[in-house]
UniProtKB/TrEMBL annotation:
Protein name: FAD-binding domain-containing protein
Pfam families membership: FAD_binding_3
Record carries keyword Transmembrane: no
InterPro entries in UniProt: FAD-bd (IPR002938), FAD-dep_Monooxygenase_BioMet (IPR050493), FAD/NAD-bd_sf (IPR036188)
Residue ranges annotated for the FAD-binding domain, each copy included: 3-180, 316-385
Gene3D superfamilies associated with the record: FAD/NAD(P)-binding domain
SUPFAM superfamilies assigned to the protein according to its UniProt record, in alphabetical order: FAD/NAD(P)-binding domain
Length: 462
């Protein structure tokens, strides 16, 4: 099998980059190689922010419109609770709709909440059939004269001219490029779940509410998603988990074994003995009663557990000049810049896809265009990672009100961060698609499409 671009990892970043590249070039063969056998409905929800929405629009206007009409924009019940389940402050009657409408007026783009799984599925559905090859666990690669040879567990090798590593937190592709080991464990464990609304959940039906739980060094969040789905997130420092009899072996979840990494997302129970549900229940014993009840009510199979791993924003400085890729290989999403999951991991992953596709469309399918993409991304994702790190790290306080006050300790004020976020202006991909240079190169000559590349026009024998 030979492809122009092999994307390793079929999470949101890999799928979206593939979509961008397919839109950017006529006749490009792009395949996504995903380790999982199929997708399963899991994860919680995410705010698809203005920057993520802009990225979607820059690549695919139709898909963007679908997201715009799917996301939840009208949350009218927002309430914070402490670890005992007591409300903190008044129930906010601020309508999210007013806030989102204002943002839309300012930026021309809306935003809203949606399930993590729904994002993945909607991008998958927008791809040409057969783009994603499931059951392909990437193991290694070799450089050859005219490209790369990728190997997979129990599957035939694939030849690719270029490669995108979109394989998440413990990216095997990154490990091959940089040998820099797994990201840093933040001593925090997180559980996420989603399920169809149940009358005995005690929650309103419909995606009209957000309940947050702070204090007792725990963080919880419960909210509705489109389609009467409820999702929740519970996270706790590892010492608190241990005090509840729940061990978390970070090495087990980040070790490299013949370049095959364990992702605790897909295999929440792997190596941990007890199921994710049982473990979460034990930790939930010290959470607010409402959270405890929800965990009890959740189908055990619907819960995923994972440790929170990050790379410190400062690590990106190393790559400011060289870019974080090498040769014919680039990285995107969590493989390139894993950050605390406070909202921007997914949005920056979508940014990556739009910016990568644009750079390759304008610079041509070449290493230099990949480096230009990386150099452009580094300052932005660095600022994002700094902000998200501080936002997440200061959340686990004993006192619930102090935990809520963490916004005062962030590197950027909320307003500055919002301005920074809105300052993302991806260029829309061109409609007149260039011919794929490398595709024709393989056949013995190079064709550079007129007006799209510099030099503007070249026909050369290879
Ligand atoms: C199952 C799951 C549920 C999640 N739920 C949420 C959520 O509810 N809220 C939230 O904020 N974030 C969630 N995340 C994290 C979030 O997706 C990422 O932080 C962010 O969206 C960046 O996405 P990504 O595509 O770069 O990485 P990921 O979403 O981690 O995707 C990486 C993909 O690469 C695949 N992969 C890994 N190794 C290999 C290999 N060797 N060969 C081939 N494929 C490989 C993985 O199976 C995965 O599909 C979830 C991630 C996963 C995997």
């Amino acid at each position: 099998m030979s492809v122009d671009i092999a994307v390793v990892g079929g999470g949101p970043s890999g799928l979206f980059a593939a979509l961008g590249l397919i839109r950017a070039f006529e006749g490009l063969t792009v395949k996504v190689y995903e380790r999982a056998q199929s997708y399963r409905e899991c994860g919680a929800g995410i705010t698809l922010d203005v920057n993520g929405m802009k990225a979607l629009r820059a690549v695919d206007e139709e898909l963007y419109a679908k997201f715009q009409s799917t996301v939840v924009t009208d949350v009218s019940q927002m309430q914070s609770f402490d670890q005992h389940g007591e409300p903190i402050g008044d129930r906010s009657t601020v309508s999210m709709k007013t806030i989102i409408d204002n943002i839309k007026q300012k930026t021309g783009v809306g935003m809203g909440m949606i399930g993590w799984f729904d994002i993945q599925q909607m991008i998958f559905d927008a791809l040409p059939e057969g783009t994603v090859e499931f059951g392909h666990a990437f193991t290694d690669l070799a450089e050859e004269a005219d490209g790369l040879s990728l190997t997979f567990e129990n599957k035939p090798p694939v030849k690719a001219k270029y490669m995108v590593g979109a394989d998440g937190y413990f990216s095997p592709v990154r490990e091959i490029l940089h040998h820099d080991g797994p990201p840093e464990f933040t001593d925090t464990v997180m559980w996420r779940a989603r399920f169809p609304w149940k009358p005995d959940s005690g929650l309103p039906k419909g995606p009209d509410f957000v309940h947050s739980f702070s204090g007792g060094r725990l963080q919880g969040l419960v909210y509705g998603l489109p389609g009467d789905v409820v999702c929740w997130i519970l996270s706790a420092p590892v010492d608190l988990c241990e005090a509840q009899g729940v061990e978390y072996d970070q090495a087990q979840h980040s070790r490299s074994k013949q370049r095959r990494q364990i992702s605790s997302y897909q295999n929440a129970d792997e190596g941990q003995g007890l199921s994710a549900h049982t473990r979460c229940l034990k930790v939930a014993e010290i959470a607010a009663p409402q959270m405890q009840e929800l965990v009890k009510l959740t189908d055990p199979g619907a819960i995923i557990e994972h440790g929170l791993f990050v790379r410190q924003a400062g690590e990106l400085d190393k790559y400011a000049e060289t870019g974080w890729g090498k040769g014919r290989i680039t990285l995107i999403g969590d493989a390139a810049h894993p950050m605390r999951p406070t909202g921007q991991g997914m949005n920056t992953a979508l940014e990556d896809g739009a910016v990568l596709a644009w750079h390759l469309q304008h610079g041509g399918l070449c290493e230099e265009a990949m480096r230009a993409f990386e150099r452009e991304r580094i300052p932005r994702v660095k600022s994002m990672a700094e902000q998200e790190y501080a936002r997440g790290a200061t959340a686990y306080k004993e006192d619930a009100r102090a935990a809520l006050d963490r916004v005062k300790t962030l590197p950027m004020s909320e307003q500055d961060f919002s301005d920074f976020n809105l300052s993302f202006h991806p260029s829309t991909l061109m409609d007149s698609w260039p011919t794929v240079i490398e595709l024709t190169f393989w056949r013995g000559f190079v064709v550079v499409a007129p007006t799209l590349f510099d030099p503007p026009l070249a026909f050369a024998a290879a």
